[in-house]
Each structure stands twice: as structure tokens, then as C-alpha cells.
Amino acid sequence: MAKNEEEARVNAIAQFGADVKLVRDPDVLDTWFSSGIWPFSTLGWPENTADLEMYYPTSTLVTGFDIIFFWVARMTMMSGYLTGKMPFENVYIHGLVLDENGKKMSKSANNGIDPLLLIDKYGTDALRYTLVREVVGAGQDIRIQYNRKTDESESVEASRNFTNKIWNAARFVMMNFETSEFKFDLANLATPTGSLEVADKWILSRFHQTIQQTSDNIDRYALGEATKGLYEFFWGDFCDWYIELVKSRLQEDADPASKLVVLQTLAVILDGILKLLHPFMPHITAEIWQTLTQSESPLENEGTGDISIQPYPTSDASLIDAELDREFDLLIGVTRTIRNLRAEADLKRAIKVSIILQSDSTAEREILERGKTYLCDLAQIEQLTIVDKLTEEPTRSIASVFATVQIILPLTGVVDLEAFKAKIQKKIDKINKEIESINGKLNNAKFVERATAEVVQTAKDSLVESEKQKEILQEQLNQF
Asked: How far is 394 from 475, CA to CA, in rounded Å?
């Protein structure tokens, strides 16, 4: 290594003797110089090749912020000087993938994370999805959760769980196609036919909103937001709610016309979500889509090709219904609240309950009336009463509120009231001890003097919260 020829000769003589001969390589480029002409030299430049004509200038460069000057600036300068054109239209600058301690990975620090270990444990798609999902903004670094002792990562494991969810949901959909009397051509599944129920219209509305949001996010390089939106739609709206809502319509004794609509809707959304997810999870989406569309599949269609060459889904604004979304937000919120009340009362899933819903809002009551069947199915309700006013104060019950809907679960006949009272009293006793402990700190002059203002305020906030919890529990206990 030398700065010039004279210094190189001195170093060479010192190492090899006075007879050493130095020969300059006639075809050597400095690393960054050769990288600077990469956009066009790889396409045959300086010859005017067909590839150079077709692919230069390129569209987008993806790179890290740490080599903006070393590489990106050199490419723009060299391209401008030698070709008269800028080498790319856009530069997407991403952050660095950091280790579990938030430090840059390097050989010298020996803190690298071997991606092959994570791929072997969780799969390629899971690792790929994790890295994209963690991008919260252009240039933001990505920190990977990683246990070096076990070579495990909570971040990648969560993505692996998502791939399992996709696989299992696809199996559920295809299983229902295999056992149905209907046959479908994938090319003709753009819009379900027949009379759509409210749940079908809602999921299609959410689906087309997700398509639009995903496309918008990709267009502005918000890739992390795109992956999160797809996750929330698929796991939440599609699996947790729509599939659960339509299971009864897929039974053998279900109305054939209604069953057909459900199958068409499931097919449209599964096909579309696989295409939306394909850039982020290419392997599992390709495997499922190929199975879904192969000629021997119930979705018969010849020559569909590979998912990677399919058109990316486009949103149909006519199927988006914001008002319907608001209605389902209310139904889902009420359902979750009822489930929370059931959990609070330790009610097993098989136990049917009576529920009273009270709302002063006519609009809310109308929505609840329209969604009565869904509420009863999802929350295991035997008798559902919807009123504008309560004729008498409910006793021996637990209650909660969502939006302006008061939700009351009578406990008589469904729980052991004495055991339930004992459970509430146990919670009150525990909170009393917490209150006593916090008061002890706050009444201690030394604690107040020595602790920071933030710590003291946290203790005061905890006291207020504990007292509120005690008040709620005491009100419940007083009903018995």
C-alpha cells in the first residue's frame, strides 16, 4: 500500500530486494470509481448496446445513507459526465439494520446477525417481512430483536406467526371449495354475484380500502406502513371477523345462494391479498396462489401463469362504503366489550348469555338491530335486548360502555354469585394493599424530597387509577 509510485518502490525494495520490478496493471479502476460507472457500464457502455438503450437511465436506486457520497454522488457525477444523463429518477435511502443493542453491525465488533440462521428457524418470508415491516420512515434504522444464546428473534417469530395465519386461512378457504358443489373460474371472480349480505359488503369495502392504502403507501415508498396495513386487514378484518361471521353460511344445510356469495367473496379476497402481499412475502404467496389457481383445483383456470406476472390489484371506489365501515366499527366494538365482560365473569365460550344494550342514539340502536344476528353469533348471546332507556337499574350484573352504548350482562343463572362476589372482594383486597403502599410512599417526606418530580407524579397517578378501580369493583360488589 503506497500513496505514489516512489513510495511503492521503496516499500517493494525493502520487502523483496533491489532487483524487484514494479508493473502497473493496465486495466484497474478504483473501487468507488468503478462503482460510479456501474449504472451504465453493466449495460455494455461505452458501446451503444440494446440493453443500454432499453434500460438506461434506470428508475430507482435503493441504498443506505452511509454511502450517499461514496457511491450515489459519484454515480450521478460520472453518469452526467460520460452519458449526459442522470442514472436514475429516484433514490430511496433506507436506514441500517442494527443489532439487538441498537449498534451498527460490523466484523470488527463481531456483532453481526447471520440471516441464514433466522431463515432456517423462521423462513425466508418471515425474515423479509420483518425487515420491511420495521421500516417506519425513510432513513430510519431497523433494530432486530435477537437472542444470541438461542439464535431466536421475537420480531421474526411474529412474522412467522403471520405466515402461519395466511397458510391456515388459505387452507380453510380451499377446504370449503373442495367440499362445495360450486366450481369457479378465477378470471371471473372480480365481483361476487347474487345478493350480498351486510358482512359481505363490509369486507369488500375494507378490502378495496386496503388495496388503495397499499398502493398509495408503495407509491410514496412507505413500505413499512403498507405491510402493517395488510397485516391488520388480513388478520383482523378478514380472519378474526369476516370468516367467523360467515362460518354458519358455509354449513351443509346453509342457503345455497348465500353460500355461493360467501365462497365468491372468500376467493376474491384470498386471491387479492396474496397478490398484495407477494412483493413482501414472495414464497408463501406464490405457493398458495399456485395451488388456488391450478387447473385441478376447484378454482379451475388454465394458463394463469405465475403470481409474479399478475396485475397488481386496483381499488374499486364503488365498493367502498364509509358509512358501512362505521356501522361495523360499532358492532365490532360492542362485540369486543361483551367478550371482555364474559372473560371478567369467567364464562366459558359454550355458555349463552342475555345482554342488554342501551343507547340514547336512534342511529346506534338501528345499527345494533341490523347487526343483531352477528352480535348473537360472535358473542354467544341467547337473548339480546336493545332499548333507549333502562326501566330499572340492573342488579347482579356487570356492565361496560362502548361509544355511547351501555352494555349490561346479567349474571343470575350463568355464574356462581357467591364465588363471583368472593372474586371481586379478592381484587378489592389486592387494590387496598396497593393503595396502602402508594400512600405510604407519598406520606413519606424523605421519599417526596429525594424522588424526582416524575417519579412522584407517577405514584400519584397510580394512586388515582387504583382508587378508581376500587370504586368500580365496589359498585359491582354492592349489587349482590
From this structure: 12
Contacts for 432 with CB less than 8 Å, ≥ 6 apart: 470
Which CATH architecture does the domain made up of 155-320 adopt? Orthogonal Bundle (1.10)
Nearest alpha carbon to residue 385 among 411, 402, 367, 407? 407
pTM of the model: 0.79
- Whole-number Å distance between alpha carbons of 200 and 261: 8
Asked: is 323-410 a CATH 3.30.2320 domain? The reply is: yes
Residue 28's alpha-carbon distances to 24, 33, 34, 319, in angstroms, are 9, 10, 9, 61
C-alpha cell at 333: 366494538
Domain ranges of the chain: 5-94, 155-320, 323-410, 417-478
Residue 34 to residue 36: CA distance in whole angstroms: 5
Strands 405-410, 397-402: parallel, antiparallel or unpaired by DSSP? antiparallel
Tens digits of per-residue pLDDT, 313-350?
Answer: 999 999 999 999 999 999 999 999 999 999 888 888 88
- Reported as a single tens digit per residue, the pLDDT across 224-282 is 999 999 999 999 999 999 999 999 898 888 888 888 899 989 999 999 999 999 999 99
Cα torsion through 179, 183, 188, 192, rounded to 10: -50
CATH of domain 417-478: 1.10.287
